[in-house]
Amino acid sequence: MTYLLYQATGQAPMIPLDEALRPTWLFGATVHEGCDRAGYYEQGDFATEYGSPKCIVKLGCWGPVVKCNVPKRGWMNGIGGCPNVGGICIGCTMPGFPDKFMPFMDEPPGGKLSTTSIMPYGKTIRTLRSITTHTVDQEPRWRKPGNDLLTGAKRTW
Fold first, then answer.
1. How far is CA 51 from the centre of its chain?
2. Which of 45, 51, 66, 149 has the greatest number of C-beta atoms within 10 Å?
């Protein structure tokens, strides 16, 4: 409260605000950017039913377009954020809520296009990742059971 009074009298700099005059430290990033499930979205791996750990955009989550940092900071004691605890983001921090975001359980407009377009990319990334994992998830040739301790390093002297 004191800081707001300093701002009102011009003794403190104004905090950065977004286009809806909300503090950018609270509303500068989307729910999707702080969501635990965002990695699944990037891989094109979407949930088809509730209870799945995958991205729930197809189930009605508005996270990619809603600006709110709750998934990062949590509601209480650092815990929370609707998608992080299994629920869909319904856009409750956005102007025009609830009318703009209804019906809540339907896939958001543009959701089908974004999820369909990310799927080939996700499949490619998963394939490349499996190749890399297969390559690095093996013991080096020099490491084998035996009486001699081998390091794999070559002496230079």
1. 17
2. 66
Per-residue pLDDT of the chain (157 residues; tens, 9 = 90+): 787 788 888 888 888 888 888 888 889 899 988 888 988 988 888 999 989 999 999 898 998 889 988 888 887 787 778 888 888 999 988 998 988 888 888 888 877 888 888 888 888 988 998 898 888 887 777 777 777 766 666 777 6
Q: 55 - beta bridge partners?
A: 46
- The CATH code belonging to domain 21-125 is 4.10.480.10
Amino acid letter, residue 135: T
Instruction: Give the DSSP per-residue string, 31-84.
Output: HHHH-TTHHHHHTT-B-SSTT-SSB-GGGT--TTT-B--HHHH-SBTTB--GGG
pTM of the model: 0.69
**What secondary structure does DSSP assign to 142-157, as a single string?**
T--SSSS---S-----
Q: Which two tokens stand for residue 44?
A: 């094109």
- C-alpha closest to that of 91 among 141, 17, 20, 9: 20
Task: Write down the domain spans for the chain.
Answer: 21-125
